[in-house]
Design brief:
It contains six helices and no strands. By secondary structure, the protein is mostly helical. Helix 4 runs antiparallel to helix 5 and helix 5 crosses helix 6. The longest helix is centred in the middle third of the chain and has 29 residues.
Length: 165
């Protein structure tokens, strides 16, 4: 529970991921929650559980691969567990808010649900950009670009690979 308290301020744009504790168990727990939450959202959108499983598996793999490659080229691969945990943890926290909004959106298609969903997507984009800013020691513009590449690689890449398979 103590480690959760240390990672939670990341979602409020505080703390540096490199200063957070390294815990493989916490990473695995977050990765499992990430997979379940993303699977729920993807299955809600595609209506095909196998396709959803493949796309979520690809997204998780591409997430971890993108972080690893980015850290390798930045020569900060030693922080892989902290950074991966930070990215997955922030995604999980935002997913806790996104899931009820997606259910609301599916049921009612209310315009307010689209606005709230857009704000939540902006929030996760900013969180990921801030994590990369701190880890890569780059300016905000560069971190926004890296974050954009992250989302393109992870989600569009998973979708494209899912379509090919």
């Amino acid at each position: 529970m103590d480690i959760l308290k240390q990672y939670f301020p990341l979602c409020g744009l505080k703390n540096n991921p490199l200063e957070l504790p390294r815990s493989v168990d916490f990473f695995k727990q977050n990765l499992l929650f990430y997979f379940v939450a993303e699977y729920f959202m993807q299955a809600n959108m595609t209506d095909d559980p196998v396709e959803a499983f493949v796309e979520v598996s690809m997204a998780a793999l591409l997430t971890l691969l993108f972080i690893g490659i980015t850290l390798f080229f930045n020569r900060t691969l030693y922080a892989y567990i902290q950074v991966s945990t930070a990215v997955v943890f922030c995604t999980n926290i935002v997913a806790l808010f996104v899931i009820p909004i997606l259910v609301w959106l599916t049921v009612s298609e209310d315009a307010l649900s689209y606005y709230i969903l857009s704000l939540l997507l902006l929030w996760i984009y900013i969180l990921i950009a801030r994590i990369f800013k701190k880890v890569l020691s780059v300016n905000i513009f560069a971190s926004l670009i890296v974050s954009l590449f992250y989302f393109i690689t992870t989600y569009l890449g998973a979708f494209a690979l899912g379509q090919v398979l």
